[in-house]
Structures are given as C-alpha cells and as structure tokens.
Amino acid sequence: MLRATLNAVYVVVAREMIKFMREKGKLVSTLARPLLWLFLVGGGMSRLVSPDMGIPYTQFIFPGIIGMTILFSSIFSSISIIWDKEFGFMKEMLVAPVPRFSIVIGKALSGTLVSTVQALLIVLLYPLLGLDLSVSQILLIALVSVLLSFCISSLGILIATFYESFESFSVIMNFIVMPMFFLSGAMYPVKLLPPILEIFSRINPLTYGIDALKYMVFPEKRFLTHDFPLSLDIGVIVVASVVFVSLGALVFERRK
Amino acid sequence: MAPIITVQNLTRKFGELTAVDGVSFEVEKGTIFGFLGPNGAGKTTTINILCTLLSPTSGSCTIDGHDCLREASLVRKSIGIVFQDNTLDKELTAYENLLFHGYLYDIPKTERKQRIEEALHFIGLYERRTDPVKKFSGGMKRRLEVARSIIHQPTVLFLDEPTLGLDPQSRSNLWEFISKLPATRGVTVFMTTHYMEEAEICSNIAIIDKGRIIAQGSPEQLKKSIGGDVIYLKTTDNTRAMSTIQQALGLSAEERDGELFISASRGDACIPKLITTLSDAVVSVRLQRPTLNDVFLKLTGKAIRPETVSEGDELRQSIRSYRRKFDRGKS
Questions:
Q1: Residue B233: strand pairing partners
Q2: Which pLDDT belongs to residue B311?
Q3: CA distance, residue A252 to nearest chain B CA (Å)
Q4: Rounded to whole angstroms, how far apart are CA atoms A74 and A113?
Q5: Potential cystine with A74: which of A153, B67, B139, B239 (Cβ 3.0-4.6 Å)?
Q6: Taking residues A99-122, what's their average pLDDT?
Q7: In A183-195, which positions are buried (b, 16+ CB within 10 angstroms) versus exposed (e)?
Q8: Looking at the complex, does the CB of residue A89 fall below 8 Å from at least one CB of chain B?
Q9: DSSP for A50-69, written as a single string
Q10: Integer angstrom CA distances of residue B23 from B215, B299, B306
Q11: Can you say how many angstroms the Cα of residue B121 is from the centroid of all Cα atoms in its chain?
Q12: Is B130 an 8 Å CB contact of chain A?
C-alpha cells in the first residue's frame, strides 16, 4: 500500500517535471505575467499613488506579485487534472492498483515544486526594485512560497475535480482565479477595501499567503505592510491545505 | 475449467436509464470472449464496472476470484485495459509511457527495463521508443496501448473497440497480435468490437442489446441458431427443380429473382446431393453461410455500425488545438 502510494506519487510528479522541463516556452510565458504586472502596472501606478505611504508602490506590490506567480502556476498545474480527464491519461491512473489519493498528493507536490521555482525566479528580481533582501529573508520567502504553493495547488485540484472538460477553464479563470488575485491584498492593502469585499478577502487563502510574504519582505511594520498576525497567516494556509487536500482525495476515492 | 470472469445479475442505472439490466455471463480462462452490441447497449458500462471504474447498482462480478467492488485493488492488479479512447500521454515518449505504467503496477526494478524493451520489440516500435507519442499514427498508438496493457502480465485483458478508427491493415496486424495472446501469455481476452468479422476469432460471444444479454455461444453456435446455410441455385427449369428437390431431398425451396433459395443446416454437404439429383439442369450454385453480422441483424434488428469516428476525431482535434492556443495565451 505504502509502496504503491509512493510509486504513484512518483509517477505523477515525474510526469509533471518532465513536461515542465520540456516546455521551456511555457515557463517564459508564465513568468511574463508577473513581470508585466510588476513593471507595467506597478510602474504606472506608482506615479499615481502618493509616495508618502511608507514604501514605494512597486516595492509594496512585490510580495503580491510573488503571490500572483504562485497563484497562477499552482492553479495551472492542478488544472492539468482536467486535461488528463479530457485526454484519457487519468483513466490509466484510475484503473492502476494504486490508491487514488496518491494522484492528489502527487499533483499537489508537483504544483508546489513548479510554483516555488517560478516564485523564486521572481524573488531574484528584488534588486531592480531597490529592495535589499538578506539570505535569511529569501529562505523565509522560499518557505512561505512552498506552503502557499501547496495550499493553492490543493485548491486547484479540488476545483478540477468538479469539472470534466476544459471548457470550464475560462469560468475558473474569471470567477475564481482573477477575483482571488484582486481580493488578496496584492495590489492594495486589504484594510482599504469596502467591508463587503473585505469579507471575501478574509476567506481567500491567498490573502494570508501574501500577508506572510509581506512579513518576510518588509520585516519592519509600516502602513502598507502586513495586515494580520503571522501566526494567523501560517495557520490559515496550513489548515486550508489540509482541508483542500483531504476533500480532493475524498472526491477522488469515491467511485461513481 | 473454472471461469476467470463471472458476472451475476449485474445492473447499473444512471438516473432513470438502466444501462445494464441483469446481465450474467462467464468467461473461461485463456479464451477470447467477444462482447458485442449496438452503440449504447451497455458494453462500456459493463467494462467500466468490471475494471472498477464504476460501481454496479446491484449484482456482482468477480475477476480471478476477486470481487470487483470489494477487492478493487486486487482486481486492478490482475487486469490490463485498452480503452476505446486513447489514454496514452502524447507529450511523453513511448518508453516513458511504458515506464510510468511499470511504476504504477509496481513491476520489479530488475525486470522493468527488460519487459518494456521486450514489449516494444513485440509491437515493432523499439526503434521509435524515444519519440513522443504525438508523432505516432493511430495504429502505432493502439499497438503501444496494447503493449502497455500487458507489460504487468495481467490475467485478463480488456479491449474496448481496440481497432476503432484504424485502417484495414493496422486492424489485421493488431488482431494477429491479439489472437496470439492467450496462447503465448496465457491471457484471457475480453473484447468489444463493431467489426463482426473480427469477432470470428472469439471462442465465445455474448450479444447485448438495451442492457440485456440476448444471445450467448460460440460464433458457430450463434450462426446455427438463426438457421443454417443458404444455397442459391440456378437451373434450366426452376419450377421443375423445385418439385424435384421437394420430393427427392425433402427440402423446401423458394424462387427469388430467378434463383432458387434453399435453407439447409449443412449447406456444404447438401450441394453434392442437389447436383446429383438435378444433374444437367443445374446452371450455377453458390453457398452462403450466415455471418455474425446476420446473427446480429436478426437478433437486434440493427446492423452493427462503428461509431462515427471521424466526428469524434474532429472534435478531439479541435479541442487539442484550442487547448494549445489556450496554454500559449494564458499561461
């Protein structure tokens, strides 16, 4: 049982890694999105936003852009489950003598790996923004990235279990991913949101991930930095991860 | 011999629709079993239940003594499956597809490589092992799937429309390969097909229609059950020949389009007698034996037809290109 589980997790992760390594173009286009937001949106907005808020706007959105990288690459990675259903490979795994929850674990882990790598590539841009990060700060960012990537990947898997075809993709993008990004405190502090939207922010796991990243990027508390206690951030991410993974596994184990 | 697959009173409902309705049959070890029926008759549902993808509404089935519902993981270990739709990962190479399968079925490390290479030689794709599967033709993909389904040495192999959409040559190659499996590997083959001539290689056949088994037996038995052979006879004087045949041989003949039409259980043995009796009056004679297609037509009232492959393929093709566009644009 354990052996079968490990084998299956290995297959899922190895398969995703092979594809990740082979599709270099995909990596470039995935990294293009955060770069556009950071330099084009952030650069433009920084002229509008008054600079006396403690930190320049492009620096303020940096943790949010790291979070965005994780959000998109994790969701894309998990949603490959829908492609697998559509293109048949999922059946090959479902009839194999392996526990089905191992597919969920494998997908969550490969999503985590892929997203963390991409997030760290974005983190390395910090000198361009006039930030000064120490090695320990970068390591802590990496740690938070791992946790957040696992959480969002698990959420992606849970979403993917409800869809049978990729036609639902734009629904997922427009009604789940984009609102999650905008309501995460990535582009503006959560506390500036109208109360009704703040509720959505507070049930959004990405909010806590980005908040934790803000802690790591800006160790000193200022107006535009973190909104919640760090323990709450980490707690929410961990609990949400466990809930998402368990629900995903449960749905997978159930035979129709 | 003890049956390797037993299906008892299997029923599966999808809401109001009863896809499989009290189906029972057995498959003997080391044979090729054909499961035939028109589209939507319940074939794929039955296969999905047998290979543990679906659970039955009621009834039971076992494979190699393991219950498909309660001992799913043991059942999964002992079966290999080629689904109607391709389930290879087209981005991976042929070798990688087989390698991952090897991991999923926990083939011992010492044997993994050797078995995969042997399988690749067996299907004649060894030279192409490092090519991504998306570069393969339909026939090559099918062969690779069959190879994949046997590298873990299953006791039962399920083939759901393995030749759908293949050209005639690939089809006959594939069947040549499949028909050897029981003898060379001791595999029991459970197959569905729309091509009735392909079902001739089965030792036993069950015909399913509207979720129920309507006939079972060997191809010979089934053909006999709808009446024997038909002899078409042309004579110089059909009316006289008709009465002669009636009196001398006790066979009834009918005239159709200037030919006499005689039903006989063993047509081949009947022809010499006819010729002796009628001697010079015979102009031409031909024998027609019922085909499985006739059996099918008679029992279900429908000619069996392959699903419209082209449409499905087209759809899948457009899905693929759409997906590629999507991946490029959004990720």
A1: B260, B285
A2: 45
A3: 11
A4: 9
A5: A153
A6: 95
A7: bbbbbbbbeebee
A8: yes
A9: -GGGSS-HHHHTHHHHHHHH
A10: 11, 17, 23
A11: 25
A12: no
B211: left (phi over 0), alpha (psi -120 to 50) or beta: left
Q: In whole angstroms, give the CA distance from residue A37 to residue A30.
A: 12
What is the pTM for the complete model shown? 0.82
Helix (H, G, I), strand (E, B) or coil at B7: strand
pLDDT grade for A51, boundaries at 50, 70 and 90: low
Looking at A79-83, B28-32, B102-106, B320-324, which range is the least confident one? B320-324
What residue type is assigned to position A68 of the chain? M
ipTM of the complex: 0.87
Least confident of A216-220, B28-32, B145-149, B169-173: B169-173
Indicate the residue of A19, A72, A83 with minimum beta-carbon distance to B323: A83
| DSSP code of residue B57 | S
Q: Exposed, middle or buried by CB within 10 Å (0-12, 13-18, 19+), for B245?
A: buried
Q: B10: buried, middle or exposed (CB in 10 Å: 19+, 13-18, 0-12)?
A: buried
A114 vs A56, residue with greater confidence: A114
Residue B294 has pLDDT above 60, yes or no: yes
Among chain B residues, CA nearest to A19: B91
CA distances from A25 to A28, A169, A170, B131, B135 (A): 5, 21, 22, 20, 20
Q: Which residue, among B215, B236, B177, B200, has the nearest Cα to B296 in the 3D structure?
A: B215
Distance (Å, rounded) from C-alpha B214 to C-alpha A65?
Answer: 64
B72 to chain A nearest CA, in Å?
8
The angle formed by the CA atoms of residues A37, A38 and A40, to the nearest 5 degrees, is 65
Alpha carbon distances (Å) from A66 to A113, A133, B154, B296: 15, 14, 48, 63
Query: Of B53, B83, B328, which has the smallest distance from its Cβ to A88's Cβ?
Result: B83
- Looking at every residue in chain B, the average pLDDT score rounds to 85
- What is the distance in angstroms between the Cα of B327 and the nearest Cα belonging to chain A? 8
* Shortest alpha-carbon distance between residue A189 and chain B (Å): 26
Residue A86's pLDDT is 84
Lowest mean pLDDT among A183-187, A227-231, B313-317: B313-317
Q: Dihedral sign, CA of A171, A177, A178, A180?
A: positive
Query: Do A209 and A238 meet the contact criterion of CB atoms below 8 Å apart?
Result: no
For residue range B131-152, what is the model confidence (pLDDT) as tens digits? 999 999 988 999 899 999 999 9
How far apart CA B95 and CA B116 sit, in angstroms, is 7
**Residues 67-106 (B) with a CB less than 8 A from some CB of A:** 72-74, 76-77, 79, 81, 83, 85-92, 96, 100-101, 103-106
Triad A158, A16, A30: Cα angle to 5°: 80
- What residues are paired with B170 via a beta bridge? none
Confidence (pLDDT) at A52: 60
Give the A:B interface size as CB pairs under 8 Å: 87
Compute the distance between CA of residue A223 and CA of residue A221 in angstroms, rounded to an integer: 7
Q: Are the CB atoms for A90 and A256 separated by under 8 Å? A: no
pLDDT number for residue B254: 80
